[in-house]
Specification:
The structure is a single chain. With 149 residues, this protein is of the alpha+beta class. The chain has two domains: 53 residues; 75 residues, GMP Synthetase, Chain A, domain 3 (2-Layer Sandwich), CATH 3.30.300.160. The protein has a three-stranded mixed sheet with strand order 1-2-3. A two-stranded antiparallel sheet has the order 4-5. The protein is elongated, with a radius of gyration of 16 Å. 28% of the residues are buried.
Amino acid sequence: MAHAQIPVADRTIETILIERGLLSGPNLERVRRLEAESGERIDRIAAKLGLISDRDLADAYAALLGSPVLSGAEFPAELVAAERLKGPFFKHARVVPLAETEDPLTVAMTDPLDDAAAAAIEFAIDKPVIRRAAMRSIECRGEEYRLRW
C-alpha cells in the first residue's frame, strides 16, 4: 500500500527549512554533521536542539504536504477508528485519526514524515492514510488538545 501524499518533488524538509531561513550558517552545518553521525533526520535534530519552534516545524511539514497546518476545529469530538487503533499507539506515534471514509483515513501527525507510523496505521486498518501536519498541542473546543499526551 502506498503512503499517501508525501511529495516526490525535489523539495525536502531540509530545503523548506533553509528557504524559510530557519536553518542557516553554523546551525545548518551543526545539524548536517549530527545527521551524518546519527542518521536521524535533520528536522528532528533541529527541533531537539531548539533551533526551530514547533510552529515553524509544523508549517514546514504542511508546506511539504501541500496542505495547511490543522486547526483545533478540525479535530473530531470523538476518536475515529478507536476500535482498530489503540491509545498507546496514538501516544507513541503522536497521531490522531481525524476522519475516515470508505477509502482513506485522514490523520493528524506531529511528524507526517514518519513512514513507519503511517505504514503501521495502513496495515492496521487496511486502507491508505492521508497525513496532515499538526502542532504538538493546540486549542480545541476550549481545551488544549495534545498530540503528545
